[in-house]
Design a protein that fits this description.
Helix content: 55-70%
Strand order of the largest sheet: 1-3-2
Oligomer: single chain
Structural class: mainly alpha
Strand content: 5-15%
Number of strands: 3
Distance between the termini: 35 Å
Largest sheet: 3 strands, antiparallel
Number of helices: 6
Low-confidence stretches: none
Order of helices and strands: HHEHHEEHH
Length: 119
């Protein structure tokens, strides 16, 4: 499931756009997701519906009115978003420490060859 969500930026954008819980129509989603084509948005919405992350409701009107809404399963995105925002500083520090410790020149000079237990 994480591969599905994280592997496609459009999916993540759609889930974030719908995270407030209110239903949205296709045109409103497309306006919010600048740069996403109608084709990609349609494919993304179908994939998310198939996985149970959103519900598609078609109203019997002419032309048909279609709304999309996150399911409880899709609401997991809010938890992930909250966690990410709460931990972004720690994540950035960890990345910087990793990058500094694993600089290619350090390894070429034989610096930083200690095991994790020795650190």
């Amino acid at each position: 499931m994480l591969e599905l969500i994280a592997g496609k930026w459009a999916m993540l954008l759609v889930l974030v756009a719908l995270e407030d819980g209110r239903p949205m129509r296709f045109a409103e989603l497309r306006r919010r997701l600048v740069g996403v084509t109608s084709k990609v948005l349609t494919q993304t919405l179908r994939a998310l519906e198939r996985e149970g992350l959103l519900i598609r409701h078609v109203y019997p009107t002419v032309p048909p009115c279609v709304e999309y809404r996150l399911t409880k399963l899709g609401g997991l995105v809010q938890s992930i978003t909250d966690w990410s925002q709460a931990n972004i500083t720690a994540i950035q520090i960890a990345r910087e420490e990793f990058d500094e410790y694993h600089q290619p020149t350090r390894w070429l000079l034989g610096v930083g060859t200690t095991s994790d237990a020795e650190r």
